Amino acid sequence: MPRPIQASISLSALSHNLDVVRRRLEQAAQATGGAVPSIWAVIKANAYGHGIETAVAGFSAAQGLAMLDLAEAVRCREAGWGGPILLLEGFFQPADLELVDRYHLSTTVHTREQLDMLAHARPSRRVDIMLKLNTGMNRLGFMPDAYGGAHVRALQLREQGVVGAIGKMTHFACADGPQGVAKPLRVFDAVTGGLGEGPVSVCNSAATLRYPEVAVDRVRQPHWVRPGICLYGASPFADVSAAEFGLRPAMSLRSQIIGVQDLAAGAEVGYGATFRADRPMRVGVVACGYADGYPRHAGTGTPVVVGGVRTRLVGRVSMDMLAVDLDPVPAAGVGTPVSLWGQDGPSVDEVAQAAGTIGYELLCAPTPRVPVKRDP
């Protein structure tokens, strides 16, 4: 029989989380008298590990989808998605523009080189672009003193029939922390304020959840938000859980106990003998390790649920197995179900915090050898 580990993905949780975001935007719109922004559901990195085709189904009520990879965009079209698709990093070489044209994709433009490639393109239809401004994150985007010139160049390309809509966008570095969005938003307004109409997009998951009024207040031009991690039931914040927003985990990673060891006081567990029992205890061995995508740097104390009871990981995670404390679960034995994160286990954010990382990384981590089941 197959090894007893599986990741299950809940379509209903994906749809529910999208609805949570929409309701939050609707409430902000009602409070401010504005209109509700459109939603680009971000499905980069194989939909944060949940699967492109699954995300297309789960986010069918979104107005658009956003991602990085051209191949994933093509998969969305082949899965039946007919709405807008935005390439968040844009295109990388002239040949990419043939696919942008064929599959009717919108694209971020953040470099002079991309504008040059567009200038030499002959698409069958105009390409809608989002011209990206670097407001201080210093990752992608035109610097403020270069943005106006880039916008002029984009207008020239529109006059030539190459470019269609010209949108304006940025990305917030600190929407999840105390610095917030005020400073980059001032830069964005100062630079883009006089550049005419067009779609605007500034809000990622953290900004959409914490500052929805930023999106709503700006609907004098069509506005799009770009939620990502929250749509999968994890939190972008260190101090607010996903459950506090009403979000549900979409991915659940489960396995079973495949062995039990009865330890004497002083016995050690795992590579490096990093855990030593301070009393007689039972330890369960679980069919899951770092080769399955569970973090090797998760240490003793990382939460796990065994047979419906919350307990802890002990010792070092190895390639194919990890060990858990069975003292809180005296009835547990070989075959007892184990929830590593998700719907009936600890949240992925709890596991990530214990491992010194973030939920984003863990959701993207399950490897191809872990079977995936899609639930309604």
Order of helices and strands: EHEHHEHEHEHEHEHEHHEEEEEEEEEHHE
Through-space gap between termini = 25 Å
Arithmetic mean of pLDDT: 97
User: Shape, please?
Assistant: elongated
- Please bin the fraction of helical residues: 25-40%
Enumerate how many helices there are, as a single number.
Answer: 12
Which stretches are poorly predicted, pLDDT < 50 over at least 5 residues?
none
**SS class:** alpha/beta
Beta percentage is 15-25%
How many strands, which pairing sense, and closed or not: the largest β-sheet? 8 strands, parallel
Main sheet strand line-up: 8-7-6-5-4-3-2-9
Number of strands: 18
What's the gyration radius in Å? 24 Å
Cofactor: pyridoxal 5'-phosphate
Function: Catalyzes the interconversion of L-alanine and D-alanine. May also act on other amino acids.
Pathway: Amino-acid biosynthesis; D-alanine biosynthesis; D-alanine from L-alanine: step 1/1
EC number: 5.1.1.1
